[in-house]
Amino acid sequence: SGHVQLLPPQNVTLLSKDFAMILTWAPGEGYPPDVTYTVRYESQDRLDKWMKVPHCKNIPRSFCNLTCALSSFYVKVRARVKAVWGRSQSPWVKSQFKDYYSDVELAPPVLTLDVRENSIQVSASFPLPTCVENLTWKYDLNLWEAGSEDKKKYEGYFRKDTVTINTTALRGNYCFSARALYESISLKHSEFSQPVCVLLNHKG
């Protein structure tokens, strides 16, 4: 291919979603279908040092998950992307700065219920990238009888904790819902998960 000047990628955005930091963009005008993209990032403590992201070099898709490439979760970073086609390249386009620690957006946890004879054990799992497993994620759990507004709250459990609830006094249909918590500059939390309901001590 001759040296066609590729227009820059559009709508380059660094977003934080579901515990991950992701760079997204849209193809520029008139891109050939087999164009690829390369992404780099820089952190605010080392400006003008653009770090390579090995898993986002010459990729066909228009997003790059940067979470586990970042050298620190506490420093603001920004990313840039360029399009490549044959020997033609577009100019780099930069995103805005963000930092994982204060900008991370949380997804609701997934609840697992283990119903025993006189108790129920509830655990919450989070869709976390492996590199952020060690940060102190927590969750809040709500329990209520279906149809009632009266919720019993269990607050501030660490992510790997199981909540054990004595069910000897509970009769009927009970629902559980949880949200993820993260203590950064302010306390952040996800939406509550979709309720999961179980029949307890049902004689039938």
The unreliable regions are: none
Form type? elongated
Helical coverage, percent range? under 10%
Number of domains as seen in the coordinates? 2
Q: What is the assembly state of the chains in this entry?
A: single chain
Element order: H for helix, E for strand: EEEEEEEEHEEEEEEEE
CATH class of the largest domain: Mainly Beta
How many β-strand runs? 16
Q: What portion of the residues fall into strands of 2 or more residues?
A: over 45%
The helix count comes to 1
| CATH architecture descriptor name of the largest domain | Sandwich
Compact summary:
This is INLR1 protein. The protein has one helix at residues 100-103, and strands spanning 10-17, 20-26, 36-43, 51-52, 63-65, 77-85, 88-89, 93-94, 110-115, 119-125, 137-145, 152-158, 162-166, 172-183, 187-189, 196-200. It is an all-beta fold.
